Amino acid sequence: MAVPISQAWTVATYVLKQKLKGRKRYPLVLMLEPLFRCNLACAGCGKIQYPAHILKAELTPEECFRAVEECGAPMVSIPGGEPLLHPRMPEIVAGLVARKKYVYMCTNALLLKEKLHLFTPSKYLSFSVHVDGQRDHHDFSVCREGGYEIAMEGVKAAVAAGFRVTTNTTLFDGADPESVRAHFDEMMAAGVESMMVSPGYTYDKAPDQNHFLGKARSRRLFRAILSNRKKSWEFNTHPLFSEYLMGKRNFECTPWGMPTFSIFGWQKPCYLLQDGYADTFQEMLDSVEWENYGAKSGNPKCANCMVHSGHEASAVDYNFSSLKGFLVTAKKYVFPSLYKDADAQKLLNEWPKAQHGPLVQIAAPEAAMAEHAAELQGVSRD
Ligand code: SF4
Asked: Which residue minimizes the CA distance to atom 4 of ligand 1?
């Protein structure tokens, strides 16, 4: 099982309640960004290009708890920035767990091993470790030689300590599907509970603008990767979202399903775009002109977007919107499909070998690196 039964039950009953209340737009996962600074500077990241005073700012635990209660979503994802650079992250996570929220703390795991003792294993807490593929591909993607080795040490230490550990993998143009499949094998062998894979978003602020995937290429890539899958692979994404990535079905985006709260407030309209901020969750819901977003809208910023934060909630909503949606999804869980597909196998066999250039070592922002060093010293003093 990719998630504990209690989590699946909590989410299912929550969504059903929203449906019974007739709520058209409801949140499923709160994307809580308590800080933007990071100890990496990945070429495809659109979150770390802020000036130093913004990178130094962070949400307090109380602000995080207020946002979580205001939003009411049963799951909270904590991306960033690197959450483990937040000095009060253990307090934030403990407070969310006490509120019985299912928390996915996204981390590049550079500090995970050192900070593990500050957290307590719980069914409500998963470390969602950013691993972008096998060693070379991950190091290339995060622009840091040796990053994979450190991340995997963190993964193994967390698994050994009894934590739920999942991985999240973002794919860009040049990804080698065979290598991604080998990466899945490696992650399952390392003891991770389940994996998430999603195409990167074309952030206009990202340092590398040349390797984002268009929609057609994304579908081709995901069809090669996710067809003919192994029984041992567990994914924590909704099976219909996986079919969406493979081009087997289509969903319009439902960005309110994964709303974002950060030091700026409630972000309009989604995790990826910043078309203003609202002071309250309700104000954000009421003030966004939703018809201006999503593939159908013709908004060029949405044209190539297939990301999980915009479309997985659409799959979940479809699941609960009709008997057909319910039966289709139930079938996927009771009889998980391996998606046997001879054409996809041919596609995989004939895929040109990955050709990314030499590793580009992009220096992490000075302030974040200084903080990283200070954090490490602080940890070793404990
Ligand atoms: S399509 Fe993507 S970028 Fe556009 S609103 Fe939806 S999630 Fe945001």
From this structure: 302
